[in-house]
Amino acid sequence: MCDIKGNENKQSGSGTKIIPVSEAVGTVLSHDITEIRPGEFKGRAFKKGHIIREEDIERLKRLGKENLFILEIKEDEMHENDAAFAIANALAGSNVKIAGEPREGKINLIAEKAGILKIDRKALFNFNMLGEVACASIHNNSVVKKEQLVAATRAIPLVVKKPVVREAVGIAESAKGILSVKEIRKPKAGIVITGNEVYYGKIKDAFEPVITGKIKNMGGEITGVHFAPDNAEVIEGKIRELIDAGADLIITTGGMSVDPDDVTRFAIRNLGVEEIHYGSPVLPGSMFLAAYAGQIPILGIPACGMYAAITVFDLVLPRVLAGERIGRKELAELGHGGLCLKCKKCRYPVCPFGK
Question: How many domains does the structure of the chain reveal?
């Protein structure tokens, strides 16, 4: 990490003078210079530390540079790139790493492993309140791939006070890294599909292919699929069979509404679960259920799960597989952004749902 020890005097400023480009040969650039060619290229034309040569003068003029800033960085200050590297190191928690070198005071952070992105939002807010540093991220709880961009941070002024950088680093380190990625385990899922109409063959089941597909998309396997009538004792027995067979995730479908025949949640309660949470502020998925039989999650999917492309199940499943225990608080927080707009073409997760 860069050395950020120095004078605490926040009033001192860096010495700055302007040199005409025509007189800059032999001087050392103290900042990057960007080149923009509309529709073609945007990037660094000259790197910090570059010694200006005679042949650079015309190019600098083409970039609109008639004058250059020459900075005399004081003891209690840091160059933007050095500051960016220091704060990026502190921001990166478990399974997040720096990608490349700082450019123009900015540096990217990427996922070191696939998983679910976790952000300490309060710490991120406090970090950004400092003003001279900034961090922009994708949304908390996003499912990310290995090497995916998750955030970018930068020092805003060309020269940053070391006390500001120290404070930013302190906020991030106190949070043990504001950005981290939790790995998602590959579940062994057991499914219990309930309902007299399916069990007795009056209608064809539509749940199994949907739930199976979503589990396999997460890298999981299906240990068994059982069908049960609207009978609490039978449903309870089917769940126990799957747990005894080694399932480490139970998914039940149907029987979640308020009709007299909807008894699935009562069957789950009869298992002697440690906690049970019925109802979520998410549409579709308001009659969702989350419970735990010891360390085994039990997720109850209402009828919307077989016809809506994306429901509360899609928001909760990755978090459960990342080891989070979903309770009333976690469900209540989903209300903000919990309304699916039912777009003609679903673009989830690139949409507001669940954000």
Answer: 3
